[in-house]
Amino acid sequence: MTMDTLQTIDTPAAVVEQSRMRQNIARMQQRMDALGVRFRPHVKTTKCIEVAKAQQAAGARGITVSTLKEAEQFFAAGFSDILYAVGMAPHRLPHALELRRRGCALGIITDGIESARAIADFGRANGEAFDVLIEVDTDGHRSGIRPEEDRLLEVARVLHDGGMRLGGVMTHAGSSYDFDTPQALRAVAEQERAGCVRAAQRLRDAGLPCPVVSVGSTPTALMAQTLDGVTEVRAGVYVFFDLVMRNVGVCSEEDIALSVLTTVIGHQPEKGWAILDAGWMAMSRDRGTQKQKQDFGFGQACDLNGRVLDGYVLGGANQEHGILSRQGEPDAGIAARFPIGTRLRILPNHACATGAQFPQYQALSEDGTLQPWGRFHGW
Question: What is the C-alpha separation between 373 and 140, in angstroms, rounded?
């Protein structure tokens, strides 16, 4: 059987450069090992069995998911220690129960009294003691309970007194994406650590169990100077990285393992455009770099070997058409530089969003061959 290559596969295609991916996995795992914490990667970025197995082989223990469908699929593939890190809606409790009854060590989270009561009532009615973490808000970014709020202890008591296993606390410093200097990133990492550890201490001071203190985002995991009091870290996008992370300052373009393979299909020479077959249906509509220090449009252009073409970005995108242009002065010779049929690779703004546009990845080996890796969709 002949293996596909970047020259033979149809486009657009989501390409994972395996050597870069392995380097990214090793970098994060070595850092977590050095800081003395368990690493539970968030697999929502890739939703891919092969990637998660590579993370597990490097030393990860357990995984984090964002949907119960992910939990279902990864459990079927042999992953049993799973944290569902999205607030538990009552209508999903039967699915969570079914997974646990089949042997999945599924943990769930909550940040509200009403939700905690629903978990406890459903658990008692079905003879199940769910493992529950309380989500803590350490940066005002999204959901969670502030470390000093009375509600933290109220939720904990509803769960503990209701017969559930109070596993501890977890947080996610999503605001770390808004910073781009080492000093600022170290500060938000310490804020994340200190806030979650403080919440844990309040539970323990109240006589409540709190064995797990779980924190994490890619920037804070890579920039934290200490993780004293933390038991585990979660991070996801580090495995591929992307242009947002490049602008944050935790990777370079050469670390980005995911790209979209595309073909030049036309030109608008007077505008300095080359037209590609990868529009926003391939790249996604995520413009996460738009408000950062460097705007890459819909993505950074690279040659077929993954070398950055300085100044050339996907400046515009329609559903199935991408517009390649040079930032600054338009390139009047773009048609000669990129003839029809030229294959390029585009680095994404947001790896999670771009990956979600494709049913599978094409895993690029060092020998230039491609292997399809499936990707989960849906909820």
Answer: 37
List all residues 6 or more positions away from 104 whose beta carbon is below 8 Å from its beta carbon.
Answer: 71, 75, 80, 82
Sign of CA dihedral 274, 275, 278, 281: positive
The Cα 276–Cα 114 span in angstroms is: 50
Q: Helix/strand/coil (H, E, C) string of 355-369?
A: HCCCCEEEEECCCCE
Average pLDDT score over the chain? 97
**Which of 158, 138, 62, 64 has its CA nearest to residue 108?**
64
Residue-wise pLDDT tens digits, 332-368: 999 999 999 999 999 999 999 999 999 999 999 999 9
Domain edges within the chain: 36-239, 257-374
**From CA 61, how far away is CA 67, in angstroms rounded?**
19
* CATH superfamily, with its number, for domain 257-374: D-serine dehydratase-like domain (2.40.37.20)
Tokens 């985002």 found at:
217
Give the separation between CA 170 and CA 133, rounded to whole angstroms: 6
Residues 355, 160: Cα–Cα separation, whole Å: 39
pLDDT of residue 142: 86
Residue 215's beta-bridge partner residues?
Answer: 233
